[in-house]
Design goal:
420 residues, mainly alpha, 72% helix, ion transport, antiporter activity, Cation/H_exchanger_TM, Na+/solute_symporter_sf
């Protein structure tokens, strides 16, 4: 397979990264999610490999690893941008409530739809299939909302991050129910959550205090390796590992809040802040590369023809309609009438794919068509695209109107006494 030789792979990987950068630039100008362009690129490569008579390649192990690392980097990147201040408390709580209620309500309705329309689907399996379809994609949302005003941008960063973490916790809580012997129940779940938070806080303080004293310039990837290690060990211990990453990001981004009183004596703020600044840069870069290859490989591995199935289209459309109906009610209650474009910024993506492939064998339903997954991801991404384009034009018209009024006011002069 000459096309997959060492030098060709180097060339191919380099071209994909360059194209991904160009897609990001196009996305910032057009509001078309770069993720959609990456999936299309993956599909194009898939057909290119078939044309070149390259045999079937199992991309799942690579996809799974990329998905996990990408998830960690995206959550860490989001956490590093979250400021914990008194004035931010209400926006954070509001985002948390909307994220949690939206997740559970969307999963419940999607589970009913799947149970009703898919043969052999049990209600327990329906919930497991519905949960990934109900989680917002921070991988798509966070890079896409940079052009919104600060309050709306913050809302989407908070909401998508909470949706990711709560969705993963809910998914693994549901998988625990498949094995009654290992299922700890609600009490065990919250006990696990409290233990995770305690371990995360201790680990965060220890990492900052140790790494601020490391004088070597080669320490950022060491820090990321430590975080990946903590995530992996947490998973082995059945902890909510993503919370460890989130709390570390919050602690290092808000050091003055967490290092108060006697603890402040141990903090070398200048050195620790330097680590924070460099970590912010490297997580953004790493998240970009990992996200690029995750969605390209996802495009490589999917059967694109499945989305043209009528049953797939009906089921997917009903799920998408339910997503926006529930979102409209929640935003109207908690935000008010100014809910554009927030209403339509609800894409599914990386975590949806990752958790779909993590559904245990005993809960898998052979009659479930993967085209539903792809249809919902593409559908919600396109709806977000059109909403962002509309909002951009609306904002442009508002600015033009305001400017024309200013010009008109400047030209108009009150008549003098002699003219009267």
């Amino acid at each position: 397979m000459e096309i997959l030789s060492s030098y060709n792979l180097i060339i191919e990987v380099s071209i994909i990264i360059i194209l991904s950068f160009l897609f990001n630039r196009i996305s910032s100008k057009t509001n078309i999610p770069a993720v959609l362009m990456l999936i299309i690129l993956g599909v194009a490569i898939q057909y290119g490999l078939k044309y070149a008579n390259v045999g079937d390649i199992d991309f799942f192990p690579v996809l799974e690893v990329l998905g996990i690392v990408g998830l960690i980097m995206i959550v860490l990147e989001a956490a590093l941008e979250l400021e914990l201040k008194k004035e931010k408390l209400m926006p954070i709580l509001k985002s948390l409530v909307i994220g949690l209620v939206g997740l559970v309500a969307s999963a419940w309705v999607a589970a009913l739809i799947l149970y009703q329309f898919i043969p052999e689907m049990t209600m327990q399996s329906a919930w497991l299939y519905a949960t990934p379809l109900s989680i917002l994609s921070s991988a798509i949302i966070i890079p896409s909302v940079t052009g919104l005003k600060e309050s709306k941008k913050e809302f989407h960063v908070y909401e998508s991050t909470f949706s990711d973490i709560l969705g993963i916790m809910m998914f693994y809580f549901l998988t625990g129910g498949l094995n009654p012997e290992e299922d700890a129940g609600v009490v065990g779940f919250f006990g696990n959550l409290i233990l995770t938070v305690v371990i995360a806080l201790i680990a965060s303080y220890a990492i900052i205090l140790i790494f601020q004293n490391i004088k070597s310039h080669i320490k950022l990837f060491l820090l990321i390796a430590v975080l990946l290690l903590l995530y992996g060990l947490g998973k082995k211990m059945h902890l909510s590992s993503l919370i460890i990453i989130l709390i570390f990001g919050l602690v290092i981004a808000n050091m003055k809040l967490f290092f108060k009183g006697k603890l402040s004596k141990f903090l070398k703020y200048k050195q620790a802040h330097h680590i924070y600044h460099e970590l912010h840069t490297i997580t953004g870069e790493t998240a970009f590369v990992v996200r690029t290859f995750f969605f390209v490989i996802f495009g490589l591995s999917i059967a694109i023809t499945s989305i043209f199935n009528v049953d797939v289209a009906i089921i997917s459309s009903l799920i998408i309609l339910s997503i926006y109906a529930i979102r409209f009610v929640l935003l109207y209650i908690f935000v008010g009438k100014d809910i554009l474009p927030q209403l339509f910024i609800a894409p599914r993506g990386l975590i949806t794919v990752l958790l779909f492939y993590a559904i245990p064998t005993e809960a898998q339903i052979a009659t479930f068509d993967q085209g539903i997954l792809l249809f919902v991801i593409i559908g919600t991404s396109l709806i977000m695209t059109f909403a962002m384009i509309y909002d951009k034009r609306r904002a442009g018209k508002a600015i033009d109107t305001a400017n024309s009024r200013k010009v008109g006011t400047a030209k108009w002069k009150a008549p003098s006494i002699s003219e009267q």
